[in-house]
Structures are given as structure tokens and as C-alpha cells.
Amino acid sequence: MSRRLAAEPAPDNIVSAAPRPGESRPAVSDVHRGPTGPIEVPSRLLMGPGPANVSPRVAAAQTLPLLGHMHPPFFRIMDEIQQGLRYVFQTDSPYTLLVSGTGHAGMEACIANLIEPGEKIVVGNKGIWGARVTDLASRYGADVIDLQTPPATAFSYETLEQAVTEHKPAVLFLCQGESSTGVHQNLAGLGELCRANGTLLLVDTVCTLGGIPLHADDWGIDAIYSGSQKVLGAPPGAAPLFFSERAFQKLRNRKTPVASYYFDLNLVGDYWGWFNKRFYHHTGMVSNWYGVREALAMTADEGLDHLWQRHGNCAQMLWGGLSSMGLEPLVEVEAERLATVNTIKVPEGVDWAAVNANAMSKYSVEIAGGLGGTVGKAWRVGIMGYNATPANVELVLAAFRDGLRQQGRL
Amino acid sequence: MSRRLAAEPAPDNIVSAAPRPGESRPAVSDVHRGPTGPIEVPSRLLMGPGPANVSPRVAAAQTLPLLGHMHPPFFRIMDEIQQGLRYVFQTDSPYTLLVSGTGHAGMEACIANLIEPGEKIVVGNKGIWGARVTDLASRYGADVIDLQTPPATAFSYETLEQAVTEHKPAVLFLCQGESSTGVHQNLAGLGELCRANGTLLLVDTVCTLGGIPLHADDWGIDAIYSGSQKVLGAPPGAAPLFFSERAFQKLRNRKTPVASYYFDLNLVGDYWGWFNKRFYHHTGMVSNWYGVREALAMTADEGLDHLWQRHGNCAQMLWGGLSSMGLEPLVEVEAERLATVNTIKVPEGVDWAAVNANAMSKYSVEIAGGLGGTVGKAWRVGIMGYNATPANVELVLAAFRDGLRQQGRL
Questions:
Q1: What percent of chain A has pLDDT over 70?
Q2: Cβ of B261 and A315 within 8 Å?
Q3: Last residue of some domain: A301, A329, A355?
Q4: Which residues from B are below 8 Å from A57, CB to CB?
Q5: Do B295 and B309 belong to one domain?
């Protein structure tokens, strides 16, 4: 066997950079050559409805060396993420994972897998997220019952009971926290209702998971999706997902294939060990998942009770300050107000956008305007994860105070 | 107007953490509380087919402060990414963006948007990626013509010409670099062929973009998707995408809605400014895109000519060393060998897995086995981006030499 030096060039016939037969090799165009120089990113305190800022620990985790998406040490990290998800969802179910995409990817994964063409879904539509599920479920061939409420209100149990008993849908969709209106949906009793009617209970927790109470098993929820970039305090890009045993059985007993490949949980679940092995489906989002793992570890360190209390306390403090300025909640019913996304009525004659612009330019603080039906009617202030501290709440209040003073309102 | 202190608690009727009517609040279960402690990530040199390691500059960018996904400074970063993509794709087309997902998400976005149910696609299927497109296109209702080649070979122009003229498909799919076999597909003349037959030319460049020549405009390509985690040298999670004007017109003139919401490029494109505004579709992957922006800036700094040459030189050096050990390429035809994923025949009687295991345990170097049809028949060595250096090639060669010696083969 030859003993030539390793660095010796390969014989010409091994690999060559010469053009392929018939291939044209135009000169490289420099017309769009760029970008140049280092990236420029201003520092901002994100107190809108998300993304929120992440902790230095989470940020730093993303710089750790990349692992292969099928390496055993990476599988151990995926296992740890699943453990952390079980804790935040409060479930014993083995069926948790991260969908490789943002919250909307979690939404699509749930709809694509839980609904077969022609099946009914009752969409509890109280804003932007209900409207998006309505759109999405239609694309997947569902028979959509679009249930709406008056602006900035939640559904009563009785309204939902009537819809579920009348339609006996395959799925009932509800959004725990409708971030466009700041409405909290009470989920009490819905698990039992859905079970009695052969319905799966699907809940959006994108802006709530980790910030307000949720008990997936005890409340009889069948499927949940969320986002990484809100209360959990990781960067955007991962959608935590939970399936109950009932949801899993629905998936396994489908009569039609899942219409999407990327979101097919038979395949994604196989990568996450739902079937007791590990099969390559796609390349996991390695660095992002490092961040999610650290965010979940910080959640476990703090404990859910403490975390929920911290969010509640910050929301209380926020409203104490806002009340002192004469500002009022958009959501009329106290029990329907969300601690994680607080919606504040824009008083008659106040230029809401000027308040936001001043907050950003003077304090580098994000206060958000409305979304969808609440544009021009409300401000939205997020109390989320790493950002949920008294210091940050004070800064938001200072920004409101300054903005209102500029308009002669204080 | 009231002048109470901001920190004063809100009146009880503003927001409360009390249970909602009828809501059960079980104690928080600590059964799955975790994970605990800091994340543990070993340091490895990833010389398989990807992901590859990222540069310190790219890794550090991910720790920069998060911006909102609709903030003007973030839109500027998205603009810079689109400029960088135009350069690496070598196109003047305004239609570039990152799909918020891995390479497979790019694949699904292309199929979902370019094919309407019942339309024909000719899939140039020479391994795993062709097979996946076949599966995926079937889910989207395409009439799939599954064109196959003998193992580890590319398609001849004549074969493709026959298929396209016979079927006049809506789309011809080809994979520039089939990473399961290490085969490079010559794209010469296919743009003209497709234009003459009313066909859109769709090319997978997941393992090739930036590593070997590609000229989207000059070669008449209509749609391309790629992955961030290979030659580009960013973490996994973003799929660069390119549409020509023809592909864009196909999208705008669809008779049926795109079956996926998350991948609907009418909406995703709207977020990226394809329609001269910015409309919220989903939350962009802020930190990940910072990394992509820096990776593209490093690409522009180096220049495509130099980058392609560096990959070719490293592949030459790799084969020089492998030849000296008596190892041979899996791909018979010289013009069909890929510089970015090199496939090496496993000699009769050699335990390939033991070589890989030794490389990992002794040198922390990843050498990959085969995938799909090449399992047990080939090793795969990636020459990708930040990892494409003589030092890394030497380490791979040392690992091969040591592994073969252990089996008495050197």
C-alpha cells in the first residue's frame, strides 16, 4: 500500500474543480456583494407581547460548540428538554417535543396532525390567533365552526358547552391568552366536556406558558403548543408541543396521511424518541435548543409556583402605576385579564403611537400598540420571563408617565 | 388625576392571580422538575455532511440583544440577509428570504408553493433527497414522476431532456449535491430546456451553496432552497430560498390556495418585503438570523471565487491523503464527484463504524457513515465553510490512518 504524504495533491482523476461538461462559468458578479462590516444591533428592553429579552445564561448557551443532530450527547439534551417541557406543561405524557419553527409552526403542527379532511373543529376565535387557526384549519380541509365573542372578552363555559354538544367536533381550539386583546380564557371544566363528546381539547399557550397556571393533565388538555421567545425566555425558533395519550392515538389511527412532511408528528416524534428509537427526520436546531434547554433549567430552578407568582406580582405593580395615571384595562371582566400581556385602553384624544415612540427613543423600551382589532384602542405591555422584574415595570411606568406628560395628560 | 406612587399595588379589581371561576388549582407536581445544572456540550470537529462548526464571529452574534421581529433595525438586518443571499445565489432577483426552519422546511416551502394539486413534477431522484421530495410532492397532491439513476451516479442531460419533453412537468427537481452518495449533478443546459417546456427548474443546494459554483440567473434556475448549517457556516434553523420572476409569477397566479399556512410564500414574502411592505406573518428567528447575517458577511468578505477554490483545494488535499492509504471514491465518474461531501468506499473487510468511533473517541472528529443506500458502503467527509481548512483535513486523514492501522490495513 502506498505511503505517500497525506498532503500530496490528489491525482487529477479524483476530484477536480474544472467546469462540468457543457457548464458555463460566468465571472462571479459583485453587484450584490455584501453585507459588509459587523452586524449592528441596538440594545432594547422588549416589554411588548414578545419576543422578550433572554438571560445571559440562555444567550451564552447558543455559543457552545455545535453537535451533530444525531449525536448521543445531543439526544441527551433533547431528553432534558422533554423533561423540562413535562414540568412546565405539568404532565406525565411522554409526548412532548419542540417543533422546529416559531409558535405558528406549533399551531400548524397541531392542526395538521389532529384533523383529517372533512372533520369538524370548533375554533374559539377571540382575536388574531383564533382567526389564524380558522384560516389554517380550512387549508387542511377541516369543517370549521368559527365561534366568536364580543371584542376583548373570553368565552363562557356555557357557550363552549353548547357548541361542543351541538357539533361534537374532532377538536375544540382555545387560546389561553389572546395576546391581541389581553384576554385570559378560563379552561375550567373543558377537559371533561371534550372527553364526554369525543372531542380533543387543543390550547394555544404561546404568550402564557410559564407565566400563569396551567395543568395539562389535571385539566384534561389533549394538545398544547407554545413559543420559546415569550415567558420561557429563549430566542424565537422553537415551538414547545404537548400531546396527551388521546391525541397520540388520534395521530396513530389517522385514515389519511398528514398533508405536511415537515410537521408530520409521526416523523418528528420519531426523531424525539416517541417510538423508543431515534430516526432522522430533519436537522434539529442545535444552538437554539441549547438556549431552550437552559431556559427550561432556569424555570425548573425557580419553580413554577414562584414563576407564576412573580408574573402576577409584576402585573399588579404595573396596574398600580397605570391606575395612578388614570389608565384603565381594556378587558372589562377582572377574571378575564391576562398577567402576561396587559392591554391598556388608550384614553380619548391621546396619541398612543407618540407614547410608544418616546418610550423607544428616550428609554429604549418597547411598549406595543394593539394588533388586529385593538390597533389604536390599546397599548400592550408584556410581563414575560426574564423581563418580569420590578425594575423593568418601573421603567415601563416611567415611559408611560413621560409620554402622557408630553401630551399634557399628567 | 391621581398622583399615587407607581409602586402602589393595584386595586383588587384590576388584575388578580386568584383561580378563575370553577378552575381547579392542583399543587404543582415536581415529578418531572428539571433539567438541573448547566448544559453540558462536548467540543467536536464536525467533518460529516453537516451541521459544520460555526466561526466565533457567527456564534457570538447570537448573543446580541434580541430585537422585536417588526422593529426597523431588524428589518435592516433582514435586508442585509437578502443582499447576502443574492450574492451567494448570484441573482438579481428580489425574491430571496430565509424560511424559518431547517433545509427540509425550504424543500417543503418550494413544493407547497410551486405545485398545484394534479400538476406534474419530475423528481430527479438519486438518493435520500429525491426520495423525500417524492414523498413531499405526493402529500401536496402532485402527479410525481420519480426518475431514478443507478446508485452513486448523476443524471445525464439526455435523460432529463427526455423526461421533460415527454411529461412537460410544472416542475423539474434536481439536487445539486446528493449528500447521501456524494454525487454532483451537472446543471448545464437545464434552464433552457425547462424554459422551452414550460417547466420550473427547482434545485436543492443544501450541502453545496457557497462551496461549489452556482449561478442562479445565468443558469436559468427558477427556485433554490438551502440550509444555513453547512457551507454557509451558521447554526441550523434557517433555509435560504430563491425564486426567479417566473417562479414568483407561478406563485401569484395559483388557482388554489397554498395548502400550508406557515410555508405560504405569499405571506412569508410579505414579511420579507417581496411586496414592498412588511406584514406580520410569524416571529422571525431573531438570534439565528443574526448568525446567518454574519455568516453571509464573512462569505462576502472572502468572495465566492475564493470560497469555491478553498473548498476545491481542501477536497484535493483530502483525496491526496486518502489515495495514499489506498482508499477510493464511491463515485466512479470524476465529473460527478462533490467537493463538499466526499464519499469514500469502505474496503472489503474493513469495519467502517470502528474507524468512525475511534475518530470520535480519540480525536473528537466526526467522520460520517453512509445514509440510505450507502450505509455500510461509504464514509462521508464534509468540507464545509469554516471547517474547510488544511488543518482540519489533516486531522481527518490522521483519524482515517489511525483507524485503518488499528485494523491492520496500513
A1: 96
A2: no
A3: A301
A4: 38
A5: no
